[in-house]
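We emphasize that the prediction below concerns an isolated chain of 303 residues; any contacts that depend on oligomerization or on bound cofactors are therefore not represented. The input was used exactly as deposited, without trimming of termini.
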Amino acid sequence: MNTSTADTLGFADWMGSIQQRTESALAGLLPEPVISPRRLHSAMRYAVLGGGKRVRALLVHAAGELAVAAPERLDRLACAVEFIHAYSLVHDDMPCMDDDVLRRGKPTVHVEYDEATALLAGDALQTLAFQVLTDAPVADSVADQLAMIGLLATASGSRGMAGGQAIDLDAVGKQITREELEFMHVHKTGALIRASVLLGARAGAPIAEADLRRLDHYAKLVGLLFQVVDDILDTVADTATLGKTAGKDADNDKPTYVSLLGLDEARRLARDMLDEAHAALAPLGPRTARLGALADYIVHRTF
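Result of the prediction step, given as a C-alpha coordinate string:
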Protein backbone atom coordinates (compact mmCIF):
# COMPACT_ATOMS: atom_id res chain seq x y z
CA MET A 1 0.00 0.00 0.00
CA ASN A 2 1.48 3.39 -0.93
CA THR A 3 1.12 6.54 1.17
CA SER A 4 -1.51 8.17 -1.04
CA THR A 5 -3.69 5.05 -0.88
CA ALA A 6 -3.37 4.91 2.90
CA ASP A 7 -4.41 8.56 3.18
CA THR A 8 -7.74 7.87 1.45
CA LEU A 9 -8.79 5.02 3.75
CA GLY A 10 -11.09 5.50 6.71
CA PHE A 11 -9.63 4.49 10.06
CA ALA A 12 -11.31 1.08 10.27
CA ASP A 13 -10.25 0.14 6.73
CA TRP A 14 -6.73 1.45 7.33
CA MET A 15 -6.46 -0.53 10.55
CA GLY A 16 -7.63 -3.71 8.85
CA SER A 17 -5.19 -3.25 5.99
CA ILE A 18 -2.23 -2.72 8.35
CA GLN A 19 -3.22 -5.72 10.44
CA GLN A 20 -3.38 -7.91 7.32
CA ARG A 21 -0.13 -6.47 6.00
CA THR A 22 1.60 -7.12 9.33
CA GLU A 23 0.28 -10.69 9.55
CA SER A 24 1.65 -11.42 6.10
CA ALA A 25 5.02 -9.84 6.90
CA LEU A 26 5.30 -11.76 10.17
CA ALA A 27 4.51 -15.05 8.43
CA GLY A 28 7.19 -14.33 5.84
CA LEU A 29 9.88 -13.55 8.41
CA LEU A 30 9.21 -16.47 10.74
CA PRO A 31 11.02 -19.75 9.97
CA GLU A 32 8.77 -22.28 8.27
CA PRO A 33 7.69 -25.19 10.51
CA VAL A 34 9.23 -27.71 8.08
CA ILE A 35 12.69 -26.32 8.86
CA SER A 36 14.59 -28.03 11.68
CA PRO A 37 14.14 -27.73 14.64
CA ARG A 38 10.53 -28.17 13.57
CA ARG A 39 8.88 -28.13 17.00
CA LEU A 40 10.58 -24.88 17.97
CA HIS A 41 9.68 -23.18 14.70
CA SER A 42 6.11 -24.43 14.98
CA ALA A 43 5.87 -22.98 18.49
CA MET A 44 7.25 -19.62 17.32
CA ARG A 45 4.62 -19.37 14.60
CA TYR A 46 1.91 -20.48 17.03
CA ALA A 47 2.92 -17.71 19.45
CA VAL A 48 2.91 -14.95 16.84
CA LEU A 49 0.37 -15.65 14.09
CA GLY A 50 -3.40 -15.64 14.00
CA GLY A 51 -4.19 -13.41 16.94
CA GLY A 52 -3.77 -10.05 18.59
CA LYS A 53 -4.88 -6.59 17.55
CA ARG A 54 -1.37 -5.56 16.42
CA VAL A 55 -1.67 -2.26 18.29
CA ARG A 56 2.11 -1.80 18.34
CA ALA A 57 2.38 -2.44 14.61
CA LEU A 58 -0.43 0.04 14.01
CA LEU A 59 1.43 2.65 16.06
CA VAL A 60 4.59 2.08 14.01
CA HIS A 61 2.71 2.66 10.77
CA ALA A 62 0.72 5.62 12.10
CA ALA A 63 3.87 7.38 13.32
CA GLY A 64 5.58 6.49 10.07
CA GLU A 65 2.95 8.48 8.17
CA LEU A 66 4.18 11.61 9.94
CA ALA A 67 7.68 10.94 8.60
CA VAL A 68 6.42 9.82 5.17
CA ALA A 69 8.36 6.60 5.76
CA ALA A 70 8.52 3.80 3.20
CA PRO A 71 5.92 1.12 4.05
CA GLU A 72 8.52 -1.64 3.62
CA ARG A 73 10.62 -0.09 6.38
CA LEU A 74 7.59 0.20 8.61
CA ASP A 75 6.76 -3.47 7.98
CA ARG A 76 10.15 -4.52 9.34
CA LEU A 77 9.88 -2.25 12.35
CA ALA A 78 6.35 -3.43 13.06
CA CYS A 79 7.43 -7.07 12.88
CA ALA A 80 10.40 -6.48 15.18
CA VAL A 81 8.16 -4.90 17.79
CA GLU A 82 5.55 -7.64 17.44
CA PHE A 83 8.22 -10.34 17.85
CA ILE A 84 9.37 -8.70 21.10
CA HIS A 85 5.78 -8.41 22.29
CA ALA A 86 5.01 -12.04 21.43
CA TYR A 87 8.12 -13.29 23.21
CA SER A 88 7.14 -11.33 26.33
CA LEU A 89 3.67 -12.90 26.33
CA VAL A 90 5.08 -16.42 25.95
CA HIS A 91 7.36 -15.93 28.94
CA ASP A 92 4.82 -14.01 31.05
CA ASP A 93 2.30 -16.85 30.68
CA MET A 94 4.69 -19.52 31.96
CA PRO A 95 4.22 -21.13 35.40
CA CYS A 96 7.23 -19.30 36.86
CA MET A 97 5.49 -15.97 36.21
CA ASP A 98 1.74 -15.50 35.62
CA ASP A 99 0.97 -19.21 35.08
CA ASP A 100 -1.81 -18.64 32.57
CA VAL A 101 -3.38 -21.22 30.26
CA LEU A 102 -5.15 -18.98 27.74
CA ARG A 103 -3.84 -16.27 25.42
CA ARG A 104 -5.56 -14.74 22.38
CA GLY A 105 -8.36 -17.25 22.75
CA LYS A 106 -6.18 -20.37 22.54
CA PRO A 107 -3.95 -22.38 24.89
CA THR A 108 -0.73 -20.63 25.87
CA VAL A 109 2.48 -21.88 24.27
CA HIS A 110 3.70 -23.85 27.28
CA VAL A 111 0.32 -25.61 27.45
CA GLU A 112 0.13 -26.35 23.72
CA TYR A 113 3.77 -27.48 23.56
CA ASP A 114 5.75 -27.67 26.82
CA GLU A 115 7.63 -25.33 29.15
CA ALA A 116 11.07 -25.88 27.64
CA THR A 117 9.80 -25.28 24.11
CA ALA A 118 7.94 -22.14 25.25
CA LEU A 119 11.08 -20.78 26.88
CA LEU A 120 13.14 -21.39 23.74
CA ALA A 121 10.41 -19.99 21.47
CA GLY A 122 10.43 -16.75 23.46
CA ASP A 123 14.23 -16.59 23.34
CA ALA A 124 14.24 -17.17 19.58
CA LEU A 125 11.56 -14.55 18.92
CA GLN A 126 13.54 -11.98 20.87
CA THR A 127 16.67 -12.54 18.81
CA LEU A 128 14.66 -12.68 15.57
CA ALA A 129 13.39 -9.16 16.30
CA PHE A 130 16.92 -7.80 16.16
CA GLN A 131 17.87 -9.91 13.15
CA VAL A 132 14.97 -8.33 11.28
CA LEU A 133 16.40 -4.87 12.00
CA THR A 134 19.85 -5.77 10.67
CA ASP A 135 18.84 -7.61 7.49
CA ALA A 136 17.65 -4.54 5.56
CA PRO A 137 17.67 -0.74 5.85
CA VAL A 138 15.03 0.83 8.10
CA ALA A 139 16.63 4.30 8.17
CA ASP A 140 18.54 6.65 5.85
CA SER A 141 21.89 6.12 7.57
CA VAL A 142 23.74 3.39 9.43
CA ALA A 143 24.00 5.65 12.48
CA ASP A 144 20.23 6.19 12.53
CA GLN A 145 19.61 2.46 12.14
CA LEU A 146 21.96 1.64 15.01
CA ALA A 147 20.18 4.20 17.18
CA MET A 148 16.83 2.58 16.36
CA ILE A 149 18.16 -0.86 17.26
CA GLY A 150 19.40 0.59 20.53
CA LEU A 151 15.99 2.14 21.17
CA LEU A 152 14.26 -1.23 20.81
CA ALA A 153 16.89 -2.94 22.98
CA THR A 154 16.46 -0.42 25.79
CA ALA A 155 12.66 -0.66 25.60
CA SER A 156 12.88 -4.46 25.87
CA GLY A 157 15.48 -4.86 28.60
CA SER A 158 15.93 -4.23 32.31
CA ARG A 159 15.30 -0.49 31.87
CA GLY A 160 12.12 -1.25 29.97
CA MET A 161 9.73 -4.16 29.55
CA ALA A 162 11.74 -6.85 31.36
CA GLY A 163 12.42 -4.52 34.25
CA GLY A 164 8.76 -3.62 34.48
CA GLN A 165 7.84 -7.29 34.65
CA ALA A 166 10.35 -7.78 37.49
CA ILE A 167 8.77 -4.88 39.40
CA ASP A 168 5.32 -6.35 38.71
CA LEU A 169 6.30 -9.73 40.15
CA ASP A 170 7.79 -8.07 43.22
CA ALA A 171 4.59 -6.05 43.78
CA VAL A 172 2.26 -9.06 44.12
CA GLY A 173 0.38 -8.91 47.40
CA LYS A 174 1.79 -5.49 48.32
CA GLN A 175 0.18 -2.09 48.77
CA ILE A 176 1.89 0.39 46.42
CA THR A 177 1.29 4.04 45.58
CA ARG A 178 -0.10 5.35 42.32
CA GLU A 179 3.36 6.72 41.51
CA GLU A 180 4.90 3.29 42.01
CA LEU A 181 2.20 1.67 39.88
CA GLU A 182 2.80 4.21 37.12
CA PHE A 183 6.57 3.65 37.26
CA MET A 184 5.98 -0.08 36.87
CA HIS A 185 3.73 0.29 33.84
CA VAL A 186 5.84 2.98 32.15
CA HIS A 187 8.36 0.15 31.91
CA LYS A 188 6.30 -3.07 31.62
CA THR A 189 3.72 -1.93 29.05
CA GLY A 190 4.65 1.60 28.11
CA ALA A 191 8.25 1.15 27.02
CA LEU A 192 7.48 -1.01 23.98
CA ILE A 193 4.51 1.13 22.98
CA ARG A 194 6.69 4.23 23.20
CA ALA A 195 9.34 2.49 21.11
CA SER A 196 6.74 1.62 18.48
CA VAL A 197 5.86 5.28 17.97
CA LEU A 198 9.45 6.54 17.99
CA LEU A 199 10.70 3.83 15.63
CA GLY A 200 8.00 4.64 13.09
CA ALA A 201 8.71 8.36 13.39
CA ARG A 202 12.44 7.84 12.77
CA ALA A 203 12.03 5.64 9.69
CA GLY A 204 11.51 8.44 7.17
CA ALA A 205 12.18 12.15 6.71
CA PRO A 206 13.77 13.90 9.72
CA ILE A 207 11.31 15.28 12.27
CA ALA A 208 12.14 18.34 14.34
CA GLU A 209 13.31 17.58 17.87
CA ALA A 210 10.43 19.58 19.36
CA ASP A 211 7.96 17.48 17.40
CA LEU A 212 9.71 14.27 18.45
CA ARG A 213 9.31 15.37 22.07
CA ARG A 214 5.58 15.86 21.48
CA LEU A 215 5.36 12.40 19.93
CA ASP A 216 7.28 10.95 22.85
CA HIS A 217 4.85 12.55 25.30
CA TYR A 218 1.91 11.15 23.32
CA ALA A 219 3.56 7.71 23.30
CA LYS A 220 4.15 7.70 27.06
CA LEU A 221 0.51 8.64 27.64
CA VAL A 222 -0.77 5.95 25.27
CA GLY A 223 1.43 3.34 26.95
CA LEU A 224 -0.11 4.12 30.33
CA LEU A 225 -3.56 4.47 28.81
CA PHE A 226 -3.28 0.99 27.34
CA GLN A 227 -2.53 -0.44 30.79
CA VAL A 228 -5.33 1.47 32.53
CA VAL A 229 -7.81 0.11 29.99
CA ASP A 230 -6.37 -3.40 30.35
CA ASP A 231 -6.91 -3.19 34.11
CA ILE A 232 -10.49 -2.05 33.54
CA LEU A 233 -11.12 -4.85 31.05
CA ASP A 234 -9.68 -7.41 33.45
CA THR A 235 -12.40 -6.30 35.88
CA VAL A 236 -15.45 -5.86 33.65
CA ALA A 237 -14.94 -8.19 30.65
CA ASP A 238 -15.28 -11.96 30.46
CA THR A 239 -12.72 -14.50 29.32
CA ALA A 240 -14.31 -14.97 25.89
CA THR A 241 -14.10 -11.23 25.20
CA LEU A 242 -10.54 -10.88 26.46
CA GLY A 243 -9.12 -14.01 24.88
CA LYS A 244 -7.26 -14.58 28.15
CA THR A 245 -8.30 -15.47 31.67
CA ALA A 246 -10.50 -12.70 33.11
CA GLY A 247 -9.92 -11.55 36.67
CA LYS A 248 -6.42 -13.01 36.76
CA ASP A 249 -4.84 -9.92 38.34
CA ALA A 250 -7.34 -9.87 41.20
CA ASP A 251 -6.95 -13.61 41.75
CA ASN A 252 -3.17 -13.16 41.95
CA ASP A 253 -3.48 -10.15 44.28
CA LYS A 254 -1.68 -7.88 41.82
CA PRO A 255 -1.95 -4.10 42.20
CA THR A 256 -3.88 -2.49 39.33
CA TYR A 257 -5.34 0.90 38.55
CA VAL A 258 -8.77 -0.48 39.43
CA SER A 259 -7.68 -1.96 42.76
CA LEU A 260 -5.88 1.26 43.65
CA LEU A 261 -8.32 3.88 42.35
CA GLY A 262 -11.63 2.06 41.93
CA LEU A 263 -13.40 1.41 38.63
CA ASP A 264 -14.99 4.85 38.19
CA GLU A 265 -11.79 6.73 38.94
CA ALA A 266 -9.80 4.44 36.62
CA ARG A 267 -12.25 5.23 33.83
CA ARG A 268 -11.93 8.95 34.59
CA LEU A 269 -8.14 8.66 34.47
CA ALA A 270 -8.33 6.97 31.07
CA ARG A 271 -10.46 9.81 29.70
CA ASP A 272 -8.08 12.42 31.08
CA MET A 273 -5.06 10.64 29.56
CA LEU A 274 -6.87 10.42 26.23
CA ASP A 275 -7.51 14.17 26.24
CA GLU A 276 -3.86 14.85 27.07
CA ALA A 277 -2.69 12.52 24.30
CA HIS A 278 -4.79 14.42 21.76
CA ALA A 279 -3.44 17.72 23.09
CA ALA A 280 0.13 16.48 22.59
CA LEU A 281 -0.62 15.69 18.94
CA ALA A 282 -2.53 18.88 18.13
CA PRO A 283 0.48 21.04 17.17
CA LEU A 284 1.71 18.39 14.73
CA GLY A 285 -1.15 18.75 12.28
CA PRO A 286 -3.36 16.39 10.27
CA ARG A 287 -0.75 13.68 9.63
CA THR A 288 -1.19 12.57 13.25
CA ALA A 289 -4.85 11.70 12.65
CA ARG A 290 -4.13 7.95 12.75
CA LEU A 291 -2.26 8.30 16.04
CA GLY A 292 -5.20 10.18 17.54
CA ALA A 293 -7.65 7.58 16.27
CA LEU A 294 -5.51 4.80 17.77
CA ALA A 295 -5.65 6.48 21.17
CA ASP A 296 -9.45 6.60 20.83
CA TYR A 297 -9.51 2.96 19.78
CA ILE A 298 -7.51 1.88 22.83
CA VAL A 299 -9.93 3.62 25.18
CA HIS A 300 -13.13 2.60 23.44
CA ARG A 301 -12.33 -1.06 23.81
CA THR A 302 -14.07 -0.43 27.14
CA PHE A 303 -16.11 2.77 26.96
